């Protein structure tokens, strides 16, 4: 697909190139934005912003890097700018209803009655751990894909993931124990 | 929680080779805290995968992006009007300079007719130069 899009760009057929890349990258861009912002509705707004930027920048794409690398860089920069501006300021606990709602819309059953809801514990983690964790589960638990999307070294991704999963597992185990003793 | 010696391997349980996994399983069968940790990890993995792996954009996303792109394209189309106004304005300044040169010509110590002709040539040259420069600018703007 990337070859076809590049061919369109070489022939300055920008509209056609955009029409091809939008369905190809929309979910990747959205997931990266969601991983960085932690809010599904906000991530979708941000993904729209990213595609507008891509559309404007397409004539300037020189093809020195892979198209996907270029698109993810625009996504990261757009999200980082929004985070710096404080446009995404929110209570971290708002994340869970948003994810739960989005998951519900996608047909995913919520945590069953009596089952521990892991999403509840996410806000206890440092932001960077949460970013890695969200991407890890969205991207079929691939360390490589998480490192590629965030452009972080693989070692950093693994370290953050291990710490995050360990903390969550401990929180879940504690919660189970409390339920058992209650 | 889990035994320090096994914690790392429990966190990488899914990627362990068969022999290593059997060793971890044998330990977990005897160690309650490692067993609980492994079970809690499985809860974390299964719940977060179920809730996050299916997250996608809403069906309204792509149409909304396309609408915005169409709007952006319309806004980005350059207009000739500012360039024309620019051109008329500068043309008027040049014309005023020509009139001023014409008016000052009789005051010159050199013969009236000669100065008038010089002033006319200078004004016409300035006008053409200005027209040429603004023409280039309009063309460059239109290209972008």
Explain what the structure shows.
The complex is a heterodimer of chains A (182) and B (144). Chain A folds into two domains: 2-85, Rna Polymerase Sigma Factor, Chain: A, CATH 1.10.1740; 93-181, Orthogonal Bundle (Arc Repressor Mutant, subunit A), CATH 1.10.10. Chain A contains eight helices and no strands. Chain A has helices at residues 2-10, 14-37, 40-57, 67-85, 95-105, 127-138, 143-150, 154-181. In chain A, helix 1 packs across helix 2, helix 2 (14-37) packs antiparallel against helix 3 (40-57) and helix 3 packs across helix 4 (67-85). In chain A, 36% of the residues are buried. Chain B has two domains: 4-52, no CATH class; 78-143. In chain B, 79% of the residues lie in helices and 0% in strands. Chain B has helices at 4-11, 18-30, 32-52, 61-76, 81-104, 112-143. In chain B, helix 1 runs parallel beside helix 3 (32-52) and helix 5 (81-104) runs antiparallel to helix 6 (112-143). The A-B interface holds A 18, 22-23, 26-27, 30-31, 34, 40, 44, 47-48, 51-52, 55-56, 99-100, 102-103, 105-109, 111, 115-119, 133-134, 137-138, 140-141, 162, 165-166, 168-170, 172-173, 176 and B 1, 7-8, 11, 14, 36-37, 39-41, 43-45, 47-58, 61-62, 64-66, 68-69, 72, 76.
């Amino acid at each position: 697909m990337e070859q076809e899009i590049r061919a369109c760009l070489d022939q300055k057929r920008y509209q056609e190139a955009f029409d091809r890349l939008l369905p190809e990258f929309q979910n990747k861009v959205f997931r990266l934005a969601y991983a960085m912002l932690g809010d599904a509705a906000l991530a979708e707004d941000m993904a729209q912003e990213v595609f507008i930027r891509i559309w404007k920048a397409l004539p300037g794409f020189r093809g020195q890097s892979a198209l996907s690398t270029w698109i993810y860089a625009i996504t990261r920069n757009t999200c980082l700018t929004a985070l710096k501006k404080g446009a995404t300021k929110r209570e971290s606990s708002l994340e869970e209803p948003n994810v739960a709602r989005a998951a519900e819309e996608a047909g995913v059953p919520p945590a069953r009655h009596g089952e521990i809801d892991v999403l509840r514990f996410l806000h206890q983690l440092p932001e960077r751990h949460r970013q890695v964790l969200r991407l890890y589960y969205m991207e079929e638990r691939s360390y490589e894909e998480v490192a590629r999307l965030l452009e972080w070294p693989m070692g950093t991704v693994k370290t953050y993931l291990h710490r995050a999963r360990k903390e969550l597992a401990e929180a879940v185990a504690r919660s189970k124990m409390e339920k058992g003793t209650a | 929680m889990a035994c320090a010696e096994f914690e790392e391997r429990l966190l990488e349980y899914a990627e362990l080779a068969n022999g290593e996994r059997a060793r971890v399983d044998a330990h977990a069968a005897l160690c309650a805290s490692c067993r609980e940790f492994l079970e809690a990890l499985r809860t974390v993995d299964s719940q977060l995968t179920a809730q996050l792996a299916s997250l996608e954009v809403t069906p309204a996303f792509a149409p909304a992006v396309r609408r915005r792109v169409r709007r952006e394209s319309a806004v980005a189309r350059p207009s000739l009007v500012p360039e024309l106004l620019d051109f008329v304005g500068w043309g008027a300044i040049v014309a005023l300079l020509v009139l001023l040169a014409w008016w000052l010509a009789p005051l010159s110590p050199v013969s009236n007719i000669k100065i008038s002709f010089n002033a006319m040539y200078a004004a016409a040259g300035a006008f053409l130069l200005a027209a040429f420069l603004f023409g280039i600018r309009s063309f460059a703007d239109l290209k972008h």
